[in-house]
Design a protein that fits this description.
mainly beta, eight-stranded mixed barrel, 1 helix, 28 strands, disordered N terminus
Length: 361
């Protein structure tokens, strides 16, 4: 079995989010389905950016400024590696990984990759996606999917037990901490060609990784502008909680509304509460885009506090902050409108069995 070494350099993230549309070749070049099991050994030099926007890896809050997020590679940090020519035809069940050997702003990464197409050349495009650990286990937030036609204009995606060039990113369940975002939701992407192939050495310059999500820091007060503490959960409605990302184009898929859940729930780790005391922010990862009629509900015990926004816009590779002040407790309306007529709630009678039936007038 031939083994090739990958030397990768300049692995960092900048403050911008640049997406380059590229041809995604899904034509089967191996119709007999005879996979060549050649393993390549990868070695990568990787550096992180120092700035908050675009900082790569291991996010932590600055001790003196809660609005500042710092980053550095962690030891054993993992980045997914995928050969784009494999498209949706690989027989591998897990994405290949390169792993950092040390912590710090710069690190050496090593790993293996086994392309279905066999030999790699400078014409092959390699896709990298972070965080690799989020593609593993029962609680993974990165899942390979295959594209299906729904009707004349829309598509949907099904979970695949083999790795593919499309992944579902699920951010619907978060805990409000930067540490968890770092491990499960700080999605970053890049696609490159090997710069040269000489014998067993393959040289690759990865360049700047691109963060494809946004971060939102939140602080809350009640109607009397008192800081909210002991928060049990936060619900954000009418925003995307999941979507499908194309590793070939570096963009989220379009015309796939059934893949896009519309809620994010923030629940703190077991035994803890969410709190805005001491100027602390609760952080949530967001898909970029403009959202209408966004509703935020904060639950403290049996009390709910709510705020609605007509429109909010989130930009990829940026950190947004909001102080949501004087949140109101929603009041139940004393009437229900039926066919343009307002009926007092006391006029409604339940018909049928206790577990079922219907309400009528």
């Amino acid at each position: 079995m031939n083994k090739m070494k990958f030397l990768m350099a300049a692995f960092c993230v900048t403050t911008g989010s640049l997406f380059t549309a590229c041809h995604d070749n899904e034509i089967d070049n191996n119709p007999d389905n005879q996979e060549v099991a050649r393993t390549y050994h990868l070695t990568a030099n990787a550096n992180t950016a120092v700035s908050t926007n675009g900082a790569s890896r291991a996010l932590v809050q600055d001790g003196s400024n809660p609005k500042v997020l710092k980053s550095a590679w962690l030891a054993n940090d993992e980045v997914m590696a995928f050969v784009l020519a494999d498209s949706a035809r690989s027989t591998q069940t897990e994405y290949s990984m390169i792993k950092s050997l040390q912590a710090g702003q710069g690190s050496i990464f090593k790993g293996e990759i086994k392309p279905r197409s066999g030999n790699l050349t400078t014409d092959d495009e390699l896709c990298f996606f972070y965080p690799g650990v989020a593609s593993k286990g029962s609680s993974r937030t990165i899942t390979p999917v295959t594209r299906k036609k729904e009707d004349n204009s829309n598509y949907y995606h099904e979970t695949s037990d083999k790795i593919t060039n499309r992944v579902e990113l699920n951010m619907s369940q978060q805990d409000g901490t930067v540490e968890t975002i770092s491990k499960r939701f700080d999605f970053q992407w890049k696609k490159v060609n090997p710069s040269s192939v000489q014998g067993e050495d393959v040289n690759v310059s990865i360049g700047n990784m691109e963060r494809v999500v946004s971060f939102w820091g939140l602080r809350f007060t009640d109607k009397n502008n008192q800081i909210l503490t002991n928060i049990d959960s936060v619900y954000i409605s009418n925003v995307k909680g999941s979507d499908v990302f194309n590793l070939g184009t570096g963009k989220f898929e379009e015309l796939n509304p059934t893949d896009e859940s519309q809620n994010i729930v923030i629940t703190p780790p077991a035994g803890k509460k969410i709190s805005s005391a001491g100027g602390k922010y609760t952080y949530v990862a967001m898909f970029p885009g403009t959202y209408k009629d966004v509703i935020i509900m904060v639950y403290v015990g049996n009390t709910c506090y709510m705020r609605e926004y007509a429109s909010l816009t989130f930009t990829a590779n940026n950190v947004h902050h909001s102080d949501i002040l004087q949140m109101k407790e929603p009041q139940r309306e004393p009437y229900v409108t039926v066919q343009d007529i307002k009926w007092a709630t006391g006029n409604f009678i339940h018909y049928g069995p206790e577990n079922g039936g219907y309400w009528g007038i």
